[in-house]
Amino acid sequence: MTLLRLKAMIPIIFRGSFVHQKTARTIHDRRENYKSGLQLATCNIEGITSNSAFAYFLNSNFDIICIQEHWLHDFQAHNFDIFFLKKKRPLCVVLILTNRSSVLINLPRGTGCVGIAWSPSITRKVTKIDEGNERIIGILINSDPKICVVCVYLPTNNTYVNSIVDYGECLDILDHIINSYSATYCDIRRLQRNTPGS
């Protein structure tokens, strides 16, 4: 095997290395201009270390970015900070991380996981809600009108891996969030749902 061919295979062999490839998914700019003037974007990044399209969101002027599938474990959260430190306009980040114990020698990627990043200019108006899990995170924004932003990454409806239970659990949490906040946060209608393979 030639040295050149071996070098080309290294990113495939070592899971933790940076892969510089474009995502198979297209970028969707889903801006929502609320009366409050906030700009919202969503991004399924399919792994923070391997998605070059994520740089688009880091260099844009969104006030809030909902992030799905960052694939990080709890001890890898610093990897996320690296991307936001390079940004011209920093963002505050809340992540839900995979905290399953793993052997570091053959570390699988984290599963799904979500996060929300927002501009420091609105930090004093933002409160993280307690409801959620690895696939659901939400924040409340005390603006005019009051806004509840929920970032969701639903599991597939796959009977082979028994994800129907996980899917039902996510729907129960969403129902609880809607019932809890719809009376005071009227803009709860903006739920981002990425449902792969269903």
Percent in strands: 15-25%
What's the architecture in CATH terms? 4-Layer Sandwich
- Output the structural class: alpha/beta
Number of DSSP helical runs = 4
CATH class: Alpha Beta
What's the total count of β strands? 8
Low-confidence parts: 1-21, 29-34, 187-198
User: Would you identify the CATH H-level superfamily?
Assistant: Endonuclease/exonuclease/phosphatase
Distance between the termini: 41 Å
Largest sheet: 4 strands, mixed
Assign a percent range to the helix content. 10-25%
Over all CA atoms, what is the radius of gyration? 18 Å
Q: Average pLDDT, to the nearest integer?
A: 66
Describe the global form: flat
As laid out across the biggest beta sheet, the strand order is 1-2-4-3
**How many domains comprise the coordinates?**
1
- The CATH topology annotation reads as Deoxyribonuclease I, Chain A
SSE order: HEHEHEEEEEHE
Task: Map the helices and strands.
Layout: H1 3-13, E1 40-44, H2 54-58, E2 64-68, H3 77-85, E3 92-95, E4 114-118, E5 126-128, E6 136-141, E7 147-153, H4 164-181, E8 191-194
Parallel strand pairs: 1-2, 7-8
Antiparallel strand pairs: 2-4, 3-4, 5-6, 6-7
Organism: Mytilus coruscus
InterPro entries: Endo/exonu/phosph_ase_sf (IPR036691)
Protein name: Endonuclease/exonuclease/phosphatase domain-containing protein
